[in-house]
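Consortium newsletter contribution from the modelling node. Members have asked for a concrete example of what our holo predictions look like. Here is one, prepared for the 1,6-di-O-phosphono-beta-D-glucopyranose complex that several groups have been discussing at recent meetings.
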Amino acid sequence: MTASAPKSPPAIEAAIFDLDGVIVDTAKYHYMAWKRLANELGFDFSPEDNERLKGVSRMRSLEILLEIAGLRLDEQSKAELAERKNRWYVEYIGRLSPSEILPGVPEFIGGLRRLGVKTALASASKNAPIILENLGITRLFDAVVDGNTASRAKPDPEVFLLAAGRLGVDPCQCIVFEDAAAGVEAAHRAGMYAVGVGSPEVLRQADHVIPGFAGLDPAVILELASRRQTRCRAQ
Ligand code: B16
Ligand code: MG
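And here is the predicted structure:
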C-alpha cells in the first residue's frame, strides 16, 4: 500500500465581512445613542463600557447597559427602551456618507471580486441594509445576512454559515474579516479562517490580524488563508 500524499487545503472561494468595525465605524453612533438613553435614565455610560457592546445584539447590548446601572426591568420596558435607542441610532446613521467607509475597504473588496472570490456581509445589525445603502456599497456584496435573518448572536456561527450557504461555498473555503472576539470565535465554530481587523491583543484567537485594509493586497491574504486553513474536515 502506498502512502497517499497529504491533501492540500482547498483554495478560498468566498470572503465574508462583518460590518461595524470592519467596513465602517458605526460603534461611535451606537455609543451616542446608548449614552443618550443612559443619561435619560439617570446614569452615565463611558466609551470603555461601549467596548462591551461591539458585535453584540441590540437586546443583549441593552441588558449589559442595564447591568452596568444595576437596573432590572420587565420585558416590555426593555423592548421600548431598545426601540427608543434604535430611533436615535437610525437618525444618526441617516447622515452616513461614503467618506466614512474605512480606508482601503472598497479597493480590497473590489480586488477580491476581480480575482473571482464571492463576497458576503454578515452582521448582527438589523440596520445593515440601510448602512450599506448610505455608504453606496451594496453592490460590493453577493449576499447580505444580518440581524433580521440570523436569530442567534455571535459567537454562534449561524450568521456565517447562512452567508456561506447563500454563496453556495463550503464553509472551510471561506475567509472571515471580524473586529470582535465573539465574531472570531463564531467564524472558527463555522469552520472558517478568521482574520481579525484591529488590535492583536483583543483578537488573540484570530488566525491572522491586520490593522486595516489600506494597502492590503487581496492575493497575499488569499494565499495565506488557503495555505493555513486547517478546519476542512477532509484535510
Ligand atoms: P442594530 P456588527 C453589531 O454590528 C454592532 O457591533 C453592535 O454594537 C450592535 O449592537 C449590533 O450590530 C446590532 O445592531 O441595533 O443596528 O441591530 O459588528 O455585527 O456588524
Ligand atoms: Mg463588528
